[in-house]
Design goal:
This protein is about 30% helix and about 25% strand. It is α+β, with helices and mostly antiparallel strands and about 250 residues long. α1 (about 5-30) packs antiparallel against α2. The radius of gyration is 17 Å and the shape is globular. Bound molecules: 2-amino-4-trifluoromethylsulfanyl-butyric acid and cobalt (II) ion. 2-amino-4-trifluoromethylsulfanyl-butyric acid (MF3) binds next to β4 and β5.
């Protein structure tokens, strides 16, 4: 069941989402060679409490940290570790959410460490662009599949693999609400886009195969071919005039 939000609820969700955006920007600034992924998690956790918010992921289905940090061939849900040291040329997916005033905000970005190859930069650019193309489609009267098609078009044009096992989602008083937001088109047009729809849109795109597997830790999703992956996510709200990005400072 899709839970449309009132203008008042969207205002509250802006508050939660702004905290997420501010913390992600801070984390991006802390992504440097020599930092560990556990350092980033601690920063995320401390800033969340400072903002009087609750880390959304910690304890979610038993997830052990506040932040997901997914390096290179890790697609999503990488568990922070003091042993994982970032190095020049890495790409680091940061996925973060909070609960504030009873509502969730959720966003992600993939950050380069120092110089990265042009091929890798293109993967990041295309994945981020595909997110913005999808957001542009979030206008009343369109269908959900218009968002999915926008992501798929760009990924396909670059011969990248679109991760199929994970997708975006509705978001509100729960982290994951209806509808699922696929990054490829499947089974018709899907529900109509209406004012009050709030979505976390999150393309996960691989340089090589679309196929992924989960490591023995039960969380970390990696590409089957070991090639890198990118992930960008925003929480957005549909208004009568079109989409607004909530996870923005
Ligand atoms: N952004 C991710 C999602 O929407 C965050 C969930 S990860 C978990 O699924 F660790 F909380 F499970
Ligand atoms: Co999400």
């Amino acid at each position: 069941m899709i839970n449309l939000k009132s203008a008042r609820e969207i205002e509250i969700m802006k508050g939660a989402s702004r905290i997420v955006a501010e913390i992600l920007l801070e984390l991006r600034g802390s992504c440097r060679a020599g930092a560990t992924t556990a350092d980033l998690d601690r920063i995320a956790h401390d800033l969340t409490l400072k903002n009087k918010a609750i880390p959304a992921f910690k304890g979610y289905r038993g997830y052990p940290a506040s932040l997901c940090v997914s390096v290179n061939d890790e697609v999503v849900h990488g568990i922070p570790s003091p042993k994982r040291v970032l190095k020049e040329g890495d790409v680091v997916g940061l996925d973060f959410g909070v609960i504030y005033d009873g509502y969730y905000g959720d966003a992600a970005m993939t950050v380069p460490i120092g110089e990265i190859s042009p091929e890798l930069q293109n993967l990041l650019d295309v994945t981020e662009q595909s997110l913005y193309r999808a957001i542009e489609q979030a206008v009343p009267g369109n269908s959900l599949s218009d968002l999915s098609a926008a992501v798929q078009r760009l990924a396909d044009a670059n011969h990248y693999g679109i991760v199929r096992e994970f997708c975006g989602h509705g978001i509100g008083r729960a982290l994951h609400e209806d509808p699922p937001v696929l990054n490829y088109v499947q089974n018709g047009k899907g529900p109509k886009i209406k004012p009050g729809l709030v979505l976390a849109i999150e393309p996960m795109i691989n340089m090589g195969t679309e196929r992924v597997r989960v490591l023995e830790d039960g969380w970390t999703v990696v590409t089957e071919d070991g090639k890198p992956s990118a992930h960008f996510e925003h929480t957005i709200a549909v208004t009568p005039d079109g989409p607004i990005i909530l996870t923005r400072v």
